[in-house]
Amino acid sequence: MEHRIRVTAEVPLEQEDEVRALIERCALGTLVREQVPFAAFVDVTIVDDASIRALNAEYRGKDAVTDVLSFPMFEFYNGQAQEPLEPDPASGEIMLGDMVLNYERACQQAQSFGHSAARECGFLTVHSVLHLLGFDHERDESDRVRMREEEEAILAAQGLTRTSV
């Protein structure tokens, strides 16, 4: 299955090629692990604190900086589509949704956790793509546990454990 991840950076990135490659690899790894059976497209935009705060306020009613936002195009529940999926007529791909990653926050979190910004961007990517697929750690405890287990398995498959730099 041919999935496509587009990464656009609206801010300068340290180790830009590494960050972009890791985001693509982690997004693709998530789609493969979850056995997405169609050509999926995910649009990733990398922003700063101010941009994500504005989006968080506008779309979630939360006037606060966050690390990543997910905007799904279709309703999924733990990886299962809950509605008919419509492919783009030109590409044949199904747009899963948009991911907005706050690079400033990722760098801060990476420093506090003692690993690289690229590794933190990888984690946030997996987390966001799982949200696009309808996983939700805020729904209830069993869903929180399931999402965390999926995140850990996907990250481990990418060689990104909690202790990896």
Q: What would you say this structure looks like, in words?
A:
This protein has 165 residues and is of the alpha/beta class. Helices cover 45% and strands 19% of the residues. It has helices at 16-33, 49-60, 103-113, 117-132, 141-157; strands at 4-9, 40-47, 68-72, 76-77, 80-81, 94-102. The strands form two sheets. The protein has a four-stranded mixed β-sheet. A hairpin with a 2-residue loop joins strand 4 and strand 5 (80-81). Helix 1 runs parallel beside helix 4 (117-132), helix 1 (16-33) packs across helix 5 and helix 4 crosses helix 5. The model has no long low-confidence stretch (mean pLDDT 93).
Question: How would the blueprint of this fold be written?
Answer:
Elements: E1 4-9, H1 16-33, E2 40-47, H2 49-60, E3 68-72, E4 76-77, E5 80-81, E6 94-102, H3 103-113, H4 117-132, H5 141-157
Parallel strand pairs: 1-2, 2-6
Antiparallel strand pairs: 3-6, 4-5
Helix pairs in contact: 1-4, 1-5, 3-4, 4-5
